[in-house]
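User: Just a sanity check before I run the rest of the batch. Below are the structure tokens for the first item. I only need the designed sequence back.
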């Protein structure tokens, strides 16, 4: 299936509320970046940030024109680095390789269009699906202090320029 990534819009914001439908799902998705319940005020602020050079966010659409995913990249353009986050595939569309496809496109754009050299992220160590996804895409865990704590936030990085 082909995926088309388009900039996140106000019309897409309601999708996030339907895909993230419990406090636990919200925490897994974005840690404490948003508070439960996800509401218009928080989504409007997120959208406004997305329209600045500090962040890019996208909705992924499948070949049938259905929205199936979301992803965001917080940018530090002077440092040529980015922080990947808000990675989400609609619950009904999971385990079909869509997250891999979506993130490959973002990483390609980050390297080619934005000329980033490095992308990092944070993921809960017990989020098996996400850790597997990032490993599959070449992210490497940075074993920092507190490696024995469970669950903990694992920092992962990937160099983009070869
Ligand atoms: C994490 C998430 C984005 C993965 O999306 P997806 O489209 O289902 O992932 P893919 O189908 O592309 O699979 C990617 C890899 O993860 C593995 N994977 C996906 N779901 C898994 C699960 N529930 N358990 C174990 N492995 C899983 C796949 O097997 C694949 O690895 P493989 O190629 O070695 O087989 C999705 O589960 C999600 O939206 N979760 C809720 C939000 C979240 O946790 N976001 C990340 C925050 S850091």
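Assistant: Here's the designed sequence for the first item:
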């Amino acid at each position: 299936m082909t995926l088309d990534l388009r900039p996140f819009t106000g019309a897409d914001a309601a999708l996030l509320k339907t895909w993230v439908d419990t406090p636990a799902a919200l925490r897994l998705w974005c840690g404490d970046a948003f508070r439960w319940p996800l509401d218009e005020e928080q989504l409007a602020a997120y959208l406004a940030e997305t329209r600045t050079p500090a962040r890019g966010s996208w909705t992924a659409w499948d070949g049938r024109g259905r929205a199936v995913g979301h992803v965001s990249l917080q940018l530090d353009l002077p440092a040529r680095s980015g922080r990947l986050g808000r990675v989400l595939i609609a619950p009904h569309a999971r385990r079909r390789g869509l997250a891999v496809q979506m993130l490959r496109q973002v990483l390609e754009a980050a390297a080619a269009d934005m000329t980033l050299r490095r992308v990092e992220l944070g993921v809960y160590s017990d989020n098996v699906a996400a850790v597997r996804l990032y490993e599959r895409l070449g992210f490497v865990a940075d074993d920092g202090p507190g490696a024995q704590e469970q669950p903990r936030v694992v920092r992962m990085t990937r160099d983009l320029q070869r």
